Amino acid sequence: MKYQSLKGFRDIFGEDAKTFTFIENAAKSVLGKYNYREIRVPTVESAELFLRSIGETTDIVEKEMYVFNDKGDRKIALRPEGTAGVVRAYVENNLSQKCPSQKFFYIGQMFRQERPQAGRLREFYQIGCEYFGNDSVYADMEVILIAKEILEKIGIKNIKIEINLLGCEKCRPAFANSVKDILKKEFNGLCDDCKKRSEKNPLRALDCKIDREKFSNIEPALCENCKIELEKIKTGLKNSNVDFTISNKLVRGLDYYTKTVFEITSDVLGSQNAVCAGGRYDNLTKELGGPSMPAVGFAIGVDRLVEIINKSESLKIEVVNPDIFVIAIGSEESLKCGFDILTKIRNTGLFSDGGYFTKSLKSQMRLADALNSRFVVIIGDDEIKKNIVVLRDMKTKEQKEVSIEKIIGEVKNVTG
After folding, report:
1. Fewest C-beta in 10 Å: which of 60, 74, 103, 259?
2. How confident is the model at residue 342 (pLDDT cuts 50, 70, 90)?
3. Which of 23-27, 179-183, 204-208 reaches the highest mean pLDDT?
4. In whole angstroms, what separates CA 273 from the centre of its chain?
5. What is the pLDDT of residue 271?
6. Strand order in the sheet with 375-379
7. For residues 400 and 390, is the Cβ–Cβ distance under 8 A?
8. Which phi-psi region, left, alpha or beta, contains residue 39 (left: φ > 0; alpha: ψ -120 to 50)?
9. Using alpha carbons only, how large is the chain's radius of gyration in Å?
């Protein structure tokens, strides 16, 4: 029986795998510069963790989460996002006692059971960072700058950064009530989702693609402290040469966000154009059983960055081809000598291939050509008798004989 991958899941190989690695390495270099340390958390957690942190009325929990009962009849879930698991690890391992201010980043798969489409699969990859222990708006600015720098390092251009401040515990309830009043007046004309949100999670209606226009004239009624914080963020980002817009309708699809939220989009993608989103979540650590701890972070959608790179000729990832391909034919002595040379070449750090010694000379040459190898080393029984190998330039088709003792030095010389 021939098996196929499940709908919404995919194999990643070839050029896409190289692009994923390129993106991950670029992100690691930027995050390392800002002193973020890697954390790896499980892909499976208690479903209750996500119910408490993300919110029961969110689309993720209501429609998209993979939830199962295991053999111990425990309700578990494949993680739909990364923040909740990192916060759980922060609390469970008492990381705040080691140092209250800590910075983490993660790279890995997330899972959401939604309709697969371009840039949105059921298994997808995210790069995220979480910054604990700093309630200053400068922490908010730092994560926005990191996200921008990662995208720039990858080569993503023409991005749009949108920012909003949802308000604090003092002023946010008034904002929520004003949205709730509109929802009550418009209730009969609302979509089913917004009818559910009208009581439990009214601010999520601002993000509704069907009803959001009903709130075109509404703005957060920020208290003085929040107004001051927003002005600091605006000034700080302008001084850091960050182009951004303030979007009063921007909310995130997760309940744990407080105060600052932001989203970065790309004009290369269609309707699914968000490549990064994040914000502040000062209450989540305490809600999950830990100390009261301010926190801020973001997540970048790696699959969408891969899609942008694949659509942009200027962003094609350079393919690294072998410097040397070693071919050996004939007796076992020739094959052993060929493998010995191949091993010594690799020990010099050169990108090399070979060892397909059961194939014919013609087949090995075709493979070297298919891999775009720059040079080929050929050894057979006649060469062994003369104590030489043939070094062939695959571009110029020129070749010369080199003694076996000197081939490593010659290889280093021609590829240097």
Report:
1. 74
2. very high
3. 23-27
4. 15
5. 63
6. 352-354, 324-328, 375-379, 388-393, 399-403
7. yes
8. beta
9. 28
Backbone angles phi, psi at 405, to 5 degrees: -65, -25
CA distance 224 to 232: 12
Smallest CA-to-CA distance from 44 within 25, 72, 63 is with: 72
Alpha-carbon distance 311 to 313, whole Å?
7
Cβ neighbors of 413 (< 8 A, separation 6 or more) are none
Q: Does the CA dihedral 330-334-339-342 come out positive or negative?
A: negative
Cβ–Cβ < 8 Å for 171, 229: no
CA distance to 6, 14, per residue, from 3 (Å): 9, 21
Q: What are phi and psi of 273, to 5 degrees?
A: -105, 0
* Span 116-138, pLDDT tens digits: 776 678 999 999 999 999 999 99
Please give the residue that has the higher pLDDT: either 113 or 178: 113
Higher local confidence (pLDDT), 238 or 257? 238
- Cα 120 to Cα 56, 116, 261, 338, distances in angstroms: 22, 6, 22, 47
What is the 3-class SS of the chain, one letter each residue?
Answer: CCCCCCCCCCCCCHHHHHHHHHHHHHHHHHHHHCCCEECCCCCEEEHHHHHHHHCCCCHHHHHHCCEEECCCCCEEEECCCCHHHHHHHHHHCCHHHHCCCEEEEEEEEEECCCCCECCECCEEEEEEEEEECCCCHHHHHHHHHHHHHHHHHHCCCCEEEEEEECCCCCCHHHHHHHHHHHHHHCHHHCCHHHHHHHHHCHHHHHHCCCCHHHHCCCCCCCCHHHHHHHHHHHHHHHHCCCCCEECCCCCCCCCCCEEEEEEEEECCCCCCCEEEEEEECCCHHHHCCCCCCCEEEEEEEHHHHHHHHHHCHHHCCCCCCCCEEEEECCCHHHHHHHHHHHHHHHHCCCCEEECCCCCCHHHHHHHHHHCCCCEEEEECHHHHHHCEEEEEECCCCCEEEEEHHHHHHHHHHHHC
Closest by alpha carbon to 298, among 75, 42, 103, 111? 103
* Closest residue by Cα to residue 112 from 54, 161, 35: 54
How many beta carbons lie within 10 A of that of residue 21, not counting itself? 12
**Pairing outcome for strands 352-354 and 324-328:** parallel
In this predicted model, what pLDDT tens digit does every residue of 72-83 receive, in sequence order? Answer: 999 999 999 999
